[in-house]
Amino acid sequence: ARPPTMSPRRGCCACCWLLLLSLGVQRAPGYPSAAPEQVHLSYPGEPGSMTVTWTTWVPAPSEVQFGLQPSGPLPLRARGSARPFVDGGILRRTLYMHRVTLRGLLPGVQYVYRCGSAQGWSRRFRFRALKNGVHWSPRLAVFGDLGADNPKAFPRLRRDTQQGLFDAVLHVGDFAYNMDQDNARVGDRFMRLIEPVAASLPYMTCPGNHEERYNFSNYKARFSMPGDNEGLWYSWDLGPAHIISFSTEVYFFLHYGRHLVQRQFRWLESDLQKANRNRAARPWIITMGHRPMYCSNADLDDCRWHESKVRKGLHGRLYGLEDLFYRYGVDLQIWAHEHSYERLWPIYNYQVFNGSLKFPYTNPRGPVHIITGSAVSPGTGLSPGPWSALRVKEYGYTRLHILNGTHVHIQQVSDDQDGKIVDDVWVVRPLVGRRMYH
Ligand SMILES: *[C@@H]1O[C@H](CO)[C@@H](O)[C@H](O)[C@H]1NC(C)=O
Ligand SMILES: *[C@@H]1O[C@H](CO)[C@@H](O)[C@H](O)[C@H]1NC(C)=O
Ligand SMILES: *[C@@H]1O[C@H](CO)[C@@H](O)[C@H](O)[C@H]1NC(C)=O
Predict the structure, then answer these.
(1) CB of 186 closer than 6 A to ligand 2?
(2) Contact assessment for residue 284 and residue 328, using Cβ atoms and an 8 Å cutoff
(3) Which of 91, 172, 263, 294 could be 183's S-S partner, Cβ–Cβ 3.0 to 4.6 Å?
(4) Domains (ranges, CATH) in the chain?
């Protein structure tokens, strides 16, 4: 965005501006503005904190004003910083990405905030600080593959969010289709679209294949995930669960650096070791990555191959994740990429490891996989493998309720069927003996 050019007719332009302003239009498209937009939250992983991220079109200070009262003054202040992000498109558009972390928040308490500076403030948003400790029951909205166009399941998600159904969102890769498109304007449009949800709930992400352009730069610049890996891989604790987010894309876009496969793998292993030392307190280990190891969809994706790179690694033997996750007793693996919902029986190496025939998910003897990429148009299916428990080819999203250390509830909401629950299962694992499968 460039400054408005001076023209002989600027007197008239000024009139137009006054008129527009008096009509409540704050900004014409393309006019550089310090007014915050694309406001969203993320959890930086430290109890009692929340990060607010937003965009402006000119440099401006980064401040958040917040408080407990829905109206009236906002007595608390936090400051952060802004960094220019230059998109890789031909226009080299510059976005100023602001980040402010709020600290010392009271667990479970609702806050009101606005962000910006004297040069322009956002409207007020509300969020609830995450609770601390392990003895509470987080509720998550989970999905991948959500576009800026035709976001069918989104209005429902928005309503459900406003009704207070969730504590956080997991967006399992693929944003906007694509954030870099049209000189990153599609990314802007997408971030504005999700604002009603993402400015009220920590919106936690992992990269998908559609974020690949310019070395995932739109993904890295727009989101603010915990850790120091630009959101490519990180983990965080939420109630009785340890949640690991990682990039399946390091296995496919090797020209950005083969070393990333190894670096991430080593990080995953050490993170799993740490999580297992803490397993008695936080029994659930949940992973999220974009491309699944198994799927029943009719395409030529990685999951259609017996030697899936995500599952078996590069060349079918280097840094495969199925063995790693099995070895450390990971409970639940969440994927997307395939445009449908699919639940697998507990599985390892193409073999089903039901807890029992009657209760397959009670004391399962292998990890449970869920693929939830149906926020975008549903795909077509092949005949499902013997490890596939259910497929749903409807728009929707997944609800994950981590009730306590032993019980997790998974539900699939169909948007096509007006919010009907089309899948409903409990995964039950004992408190002890979770560090590995036998
Ligand atoms: C791509 O990004 C990663 C991490 O953000 C970095 O380590 C790598 O060197 C980058 N690759 C290229 C080719 O710029
Ligand atoms: C796993 O459990 C389901 C549900 O009872 C059953 O249909 C399936 O055949 C079982 N698979 C194996 C290998 O036991
Ligand atoms: C978790 O909740 C279930 C269902 O209410 C209950 O049966 C189970 O004992 C609880 N587990 C723990 C560790 O409290």
Answers:
(1) no
(2) no
(3) 91
(4) 37-128 (2.60.40.380), 137-428 (3.60.21.10)
